[in-house]
Amino acid sequence: MKLAALDEEDLTVVSTMVQDAVLKVGDIQYFPKEKQLVVAMNRFAWDEAESAPDTNQRHRAVLRISRIESLQCKNIDQANKDTVLSLLALRFQPEIEPGGRLILEFSGGAAMAANVECLEVQLADLGARWATSNRPHHELD
Q1: 86-106 as b/e, with b when 16 or more CB fall inside 10 Å?
Q2: 43 closest CA partner among 88, 99, 75, 8
Q3: pLDDT of residue 122 exceeding 70
Q4: For residue 50, what are the contacts with CB-CB under 8 A and spacing of at least 6?
Q5: Helix or strand or coil: residue 32?
Q6: Is residue 42 within 8 Å of 60, Cβ to Cβ?
Q7: Deepest of 32, 42, 45, 124, by most Cβ within 10 A of its Cβ?
Q8: Residues 6+ apart with CB under 8 A from 57
Q9: Between vectors from CA 128 to CA 123 and to CA 129, what angle results, nearest 5°?
Q10: Percent of the chain's residues with pLDDT above 90
Q11: How far is CA 58 from CA 40, 111, 117, 127, 132, in A?
């Protein structure tokens, strides 16, 4: 699977596809000169789980965010590369057109905020998928 997001509607689709992806802090690579953030992850295949409820699979995937002017982190210990993060959602806060803030929200109050010239996000699966016995579950208040 390969997806691109160039507007908020596209980003909603990409956000759905990466919901409950797990990754380590060491899987996050920021390249300021290239203005890119690359996040390798194991994404849960919600698209497949909806059509086959007994199927729980993960895919190795890469999320690439381009045209980044600056990047801030909240509640992420960048020195501990083995810390596991669970990605909950991607959100875009438009500012001066076409730019804004792209926020990666993680469980436990962790977040990354990228100030971007414009929205340019790509998601691609890598290699084969694998079965998992764990299906993400969220308690609703």
Answers
A1: bbbebbbeeeeeeebbbbbbb
A2: 88
A3: yes
A4: none
A5: coil
A6: yes
A7: 45
A8: 44, 45, 48, 49, 129, 130, 131, 132
A9: 80
A10: 74
A11: 13, 22, 32, 11, 7
